Amino acid sequence: MQNSLEEINSTVRYNDNYPFLKRLSAFIGPGLLIAVGYMDPGNWITSMSGGAKYGYVLLSVILLSSLMAMLLQSLSVRLGIASGMDLAQVTRRMTTKNKAVVAWIIAELAIMATDIAEIIGSAIALNLLFDIPLVIGVAITVADVFLLLLIMRLGFRKLEAVVGVLVFTILIIFVFEVYWSHPDAREILNGFVPQTAVLTNSGILYMALGIVGATIMPHNLYLHSSIVQTRQYNRDSNPSKKEAIRLATIDSNLQLSIAFLVNCLLLTLGAALFYGTHQSLGRFYELYRALKESHIAGPVGGGVMSTLFAVALLASGQNSTITGTLSGQIVMEGFINLRMKPWMRRLLTRLLAVIPVFFCLYFYGSSIANVEELLVFTQVFLSLALPLSIIPLLMATSKKQIMGEDFVNRRIINIIGWLSVVVLCVLNLYLIVETLLEVI
């Protein structure tokens, strides 16, 4: 079996004899690409709407879902380094050829669904910032693929650096916006304490399920198990692999902590500006307009707040484009061993993703509201696809034949992992039913 992402596998310099901080810095990067999936445009509306409707009470739910994400991503790291395979390759090994093809199709559709959300986010951001028509904005997103290829030619570390700049752009913008919105610090701290209202109030419960159910993205598990292998640790040494797992897990938890902070900032911004105003914040344009018209946004004014929001949305969409195209390569090569030229594969993936968006624009009109309806259906499909990624991950990391005796999961990790699977599946099933009932 060929290496995962062979063109960049083991290309980042690393030496076990480096001082600790230099060893850690060599592993900083993959976690940034993973964190992107936890602060993508699809998560923004849920967090800000949750704050606007229910104040700070859902901060405890963001904390819980972030801890669950850290666990699953750490298992993905362990799988990639210990087995030398990514999740797609391992799943192919554990199943039959026909089932692998079905799993590949579902994984590709999940990546496409994620890509649709990023295309919509980027196109709306371009519309808000430059008044570019949505059709043209969607077409512009196709060019992102070639920008990615150009960056990749400069080296994987350059790609990680670009993603890092965009991630910290988003973080800084929302720190700035929350600062000027003057949130109640005491209420924020109280929000991290679980409250019975989350379970007893049906509206809060539904929003909480939305936050948890939409947090874990299937493509992130495939992506992380692959890109951790870009480091040049000793594949034949268990001590070296253990150290690589430790450093990669630190990187993952550090970057997911940034994603956790961004989601908390989003909810806090919604609560500080709009809680108690009875203002509907269901879509990107409504969020933008609400920020623009806000009269309590400090001396910087609502216009600056809304513009920065659109810039952050554009940065988020660009980040997610990068991770989505890489994930497409991983699942295609891992499940069915189909190899194409990088530019052709990434262009094909993006074109397949923009077709539903163009279809919506053509048949339902070029309004932002119509395009945003696609987000509902993409989230439903991601909920369906999620168990098909998590279950193989837990199964694989529990097998000595795949992981080796020194790297299999401890019993407590398996217990927590399978409980997380059950919780996520139940929550996602509930969300799917509720969403379909709303549509019907």
From TrEMBL:
UniProtKB keywords: Cell membrane, Ion transport, Membrane, Symport, Transmembrane, Transmembrane helix, Transport
Compartments it resides in: Cell membrane; Membrane
Main subcellular location: membrane
BP terms from Gene Ontology: iron ion transmembrane transport
GO function term, MF aspect, one: metal ion binding
InterPro entries given in the database record: NRAMP_fam
Topology relative to the membrane: Multi-pass membrane protein
Transmembrane intervals: 20-39, 54-81, 101-126, 132-152, 159-180, 204-223, 256-276, 296-315, 347-364, 376-395, 415-433
GO annotations of cellular component type: plasma membrane
Protein purpose: H(+)-stimulated, divalent metal cation uptake system.
Protein family according to the UniProt entry: Belongs to the NRAMP family.
Descriptive protein name: Divalent metal cation transporter MntH
Species of origin: Macrococcus bovicus
Gene: mntH
